[in-house]
Amino acid sequence: xxxxxxxxxxxxxxxxxxxxxxxxxxxxxxxxxxxxxxxxxxxxxxxxxxxxxxxxxxxxxxxxxxxxxxxxxxxxxxxxxxxxxxxxxxxxxxxxxxxxxxxxxxxxxxxxxx
Length: 114
Description:
Blueprint (H helix, E strand, L loop, with lengths): L2 H29 L11 E2 L2 E2 H25 L1 H12 L3 H24 L1
Helix pairs in contact: 1-2, 3-4
């Protein structure tokens, strides 16, 4: 497969994954009740609310992996666009952007762990 074919497949997977995450998020927010109540009402299509939450989490983690692949496949575009927008400071800006993502991921990890 050519690089453009991989990009198309990856973008299609990202779209389907995003739609699935959104649909399950809306399902969890508006259809399946939370809190105390009859246990039978917390099921939808044979799955409990917590099982839907697990699917939502796994799809989100899968999307993170797809996003990393997306950036990797489009890295030359990122570098060239950064060069054209920022001129001689493009390397510093790109490093700052990468470091910012590492900090954001670390903060998210700390928030989840504690």
